[in-house]
Amino acid sequence: MSDHLDVGVDVDSKTLMVAVHGVEGSRRIDNSATSIKAWLAELPAGCRIGLEATNRYHELLVQHAQHAGHTVFVLNPRDIKHYAKGVAQRGKTDAGDAQVIARYVAKEGDELHEYVSRSPQQERLHVLLQQRQALIKARTQIQLSLDAKSTKTGTFSGIFRAIDEAIKAQDRAIQQASSAGEHGDLYRQMLTIPGVGPTVAACLTHHITRWKLASADAWVACTGLDPRPNQSGARVGRCHLSKRGNAGLRQTLYMAAMGLTRAKGGRPLYEALRARGHSSTAAFNILARKLARISWGVFKSGRDFDPALMGIGDIRFGSA
Fold first, then answer.
1. 113, 187 Cβ separation under 8 angstroms
2. Among 103, 146, 192, 224, which is disulfide-ready with 243 (CB 3.0 to 4.6 Å)?
3. pTM for the whole thing?
4. What is the DSSP letter of 110?
5. How many Å apart are CA 109 and CA 69, to the nearest integer?
6. What is the pLDDT of residue 312?
7. What is the mean pLDDT of the chain?
8. How far apart are CA 88 and CA 311, in angstroms?
């Protein structure tokens, strides 16, 4: 083997398909600690290993690969999908996907950010937030498949009561973990922001401390609420959200923006945006971005929310 390898891994719940850039063929191994350790022992030191983010199936490989001293990139599946189209991938197979990921790492690796592992407390909060999001998603899917009467007094009302109780239990666990965690002071400071309740504060605290970010713009980019330019020559098109960040965080900020309109001083902001011709969705997205910047200010200052930050003067009134 060479001194440096760029490796792509296609992950599923039971197996890993492994490919090395510049080497024909691929191999499948079990997604288990024993198989992963045995495979990693065959690699030279300092390899670059790329894999797509999954629900949780990729985490065992990430843990062992980093422990073995390799550089790991956890990649956005959408990026790999577009890259595969760009290099004219013929068909879709596990082996082909692994080869595309390996090629992506080889060509783009110098521009990628190495995955940062979570601390034990971050991991616990991550799991709690993920479980809550799954409960919300399940409740919405069931509700959309039934008529409104069934959700309240019909045959399925007991299911909804059980899910609601489970969500409340998750909220209590999230709040307890946040207030007692390493960033408990920041969590309490986030609660001083209008429109931000206990669960939203926990989500903001968890994500804003997850990475070493250089600026408010970098933090907004992590939320996916940053406007994406749409220009070509003299034409300036309508901007849209990049949606490149964490979807759960973005949804949480959007819901907080809706809550902000019911908080003191929040309704005039919403009405000012609507008066400028923005749709309700665009207005809520702009307010969500505003809340993201306010939360960054609280994070960097180490102080409670300053009401002076609620002015509309620094809102960017471009398209959401």
1. no
2. 224
3. 0.82
4. G
5. 16
6. 42
7. 89
8. 49
